[in-house]
Amino acid sequence: MPFYSMDNLSLEDQRLFELFGRGSRVNIPFDLVHSAFENVVDTHPHVTAARHHDGTTITYQELDKRANILSNRLIQRGLRPNDRVCIVVSRSIEFLVGIFAVLKAGAQYVPLDGGIVADAARMLPLESFSSHSGRSWGQ
Q: Where is the AMP-dependent synthetase/ligase domain (predicted)?
């Protein structure tokens, strides 16, 4: 039996999955996540998009601006559509900038825990996760 089979769940979990796992069909007006994000940027540019635990905030407009700058930089450095990019950073505003930058470039992001120590990060086989593993692209 495959590990993803419903049979691996308890009977109660299977019942709950059947009850709550299938909602009504909803038409989503955007094909891409970053297209939905850009719609929010257009309609609410000055609204706070994110707040870091240290109190730092960023508006949708500023997040979009920073993501566009980084996206263009990644493309200039050779990022191509469908490439994978490891994002090795702790949860932060910069993490969001990285995610949207990669998506805007047409690539895929692979989030890795930015809290791991540098020695452990050097041991990761980034090439297996990512087409581009340059840690300094955002600098």
A: 37-122
* Angle, helix 60-76 to helix 93-104, in steps of 10 degrees: 60
How far, in Å, CA of 76 to CA of 136, rounded?
A: 14
Residue 93 — φ and ψ, nearest 5°?
-65, -35
Is there a contact between 108 and 84 (Cβ–Cβ < 8 Å)? yes
Q: What is the pTM of this model?
A: 0.70
- Where do the domains of the chain lie, and which CATH numbers do they carry? 30-129 (3.40.50.980)
State the number of CA atoms in the 13 A half-sphere of 40 facing the CB.
14
CA-CA distance, 129 to 28, in Å (whole number)? 30
Q: Write out pLDDT tens, residues 88-138.
A: 888 899 999 999 999 999 999 988 776 665 666 666 655 555 555 444 444
Which candidate, 40, 105, 107, 110, places its Cα nearest to that of 67?
105
For residues 134 and 87, what is the distance between their CA atoms, to the nearest angstrom? 9
Residue 88's nearest CA partner among 131, 123, 121, 52 is: 121
- List the one residue out of 133, 50, 129 whose CA is nearest residue 96: 50
